[in-house]
Design brief:
This protein is 28% helix and 26% strand. The protein has helices spanning 40-46, 106-109, 150-168, 186-197, 210-219, 232-240, 254-263, 284-289, 302-313, 330-338, and strands at 2-6, 14-17, 28-37, 48-52, 55-58, 68-69, 74-81, 93-96, 133-136, 142-143, 179-182, 203-207, 223-226, 244-249, 264-272, 293-296, 322-326, 345-349.
């Protein structure tokens, strides 16, 4: 099999060839067709996430060893299964849920693999989708996404799922209230689409890039703000006619979290999704007196991914702009994502 691997942290991915694995036990083998290229792989390739205050979360501390194959939005065809995998749809195309846990803890037994403290995620602890084959530990992680453009479907397992889970944490959103979506790259455009799919229209898109703000309007944002403005919080409130109900921060740095909190009404909610990194001073008394909710939203469950696929199949969730590139261009794509030079999403094709 062929893959593009991290051999040294922070360096371009390198082409590798190794023996194609054979599935054992409950494992399932897919030959891959597509894999979305997610911005979080920029941080993973670098080998760390910024935590703020000069602290870093090292990928080696999360169980990653090199060489590692990244890619956590895989879509492909089931070609083989282990003897204990049960009734597996050999020859069928499937989207893969990548956020696997240990399979035995209380969270995993609840179906909340993404909350497992001993994660075994595809593209992090397990070999990922920047390859022509992928081994999946159990068929329960295979999702039928038939009826959807398969290249776009690949992106649903991270950007679709992450934004669905984040938006769900704001529900129920009163129709007259306003929600800010901060950062409208691929994840932010999907968040706007997810809000619209759930029936909400009063959406303000915030970004530094004019082209991305234009794309946000096309995706369904009712208003846009350039986040380089020094008074973003004030402008959010001007558009909304007062403090806003909620914000979804798809950037996740000190500035974005700060102006989002400054714009919230009493009882408002800030949902943190982006992993750019940073920290903010937080007044405990003001947080209490304003009855604020600040909540992290990390990925989503298998059940939630099935709900995302259903929204897409019903036509309620619509594709955002995306382009296909050959797998050989995955490292260049990560470079462009790091530079903020990509509008929408990129999906590599095997």
């Amino acid at each position: 099999m062929l893959s593009y691997d991290v051999v040294e942290w922070g360096k371009p991915l390198e082409k590798a060839e190794r023996e194609t694995p054979k599935p054992n036990g409950t494992e399932v083998l897919l030959t891959l067709k597509y894999c979305g290229v997610c911005h979080s792989d920029v941080h993973i390739r670098d080998g760390y996430f910024e935590l703020g205050g000069g602290k870093r979360l090292l990928m080696s501390d999360r169980g990653m060893t090199l060489p590692a194959t990244l890619g956590h939005e895989p879509y492909g065809t089931v070609i083989a299964a282990g003897p204990e995998a049960g009734d597996v749809p050999i020859g069928a195309d499937r989207l893969v849920y990548p956020w696997m846990g240990c399979g035995i803890c209380a969270r995993c037994r609840e179906g909340l693999d993404n909350y497992c403290m001993a994660a075994r995620m595809i593209g992090i602890q397990r070999r990922g989708g920047y390859a022509d084959h992928l081994l999946v530990p159990h068929p329960r992680y295979l999702i039928d996404a038939s009826g959807i453009d398969p290249a776009w479907a690949a992106t649903l397992s991270c950007s679709g799922l992450s934004t669905y889970s984040a938006v769900s944490k704001l529900n129920p959103i009163p129709r007259e209230e306003w929600v800010a979506v901060i950062g409208v790259g691929g994840l932010g455009l999907t968040a706007i689409g997810m809000l619209r799919a759930m029936g909400h229209e009063r959406i303000i898109a915030v970004d530094v890039d004019a082209a991305k703000l234009n794309a946000a309007e096309v995706a369904g944002a009712a208003a846009t703000i350039d986040s380089r403005d020094v008074e973003v919080a004030k402008k959010l409130q001007q558009i909304a006619g007062g403090p806003i109900y909620g914000a979804i921060d798809l950037v996740g740095n000190t500035d974005t979290a700060s102006f989002a909190l400054g714009a919230l009404r009493k009882g408002g909610r800030l949902i943190l999704v982006g992993l750019y990194g940073g920290e903010i001073p937080l007044s405990l008394a003001a947080t209490i007196q304003r009855a604020l909710t600040i909540q992290g939203s990390h990925l989503g469950s298998v059940a939630e991914l099935k709900e995302v696929v259903a929204l897409a199949r019903e036509g309620k969730l619509r594709p955002i702009p995306f382009q296909k590139r050959p797998l050989s261009e995955v490292s260049r794509t990560l470079d462009e994502l790091k530079a903020g030079a990509i509008l929408g999403r990129v999906v590599v094709e095997m």
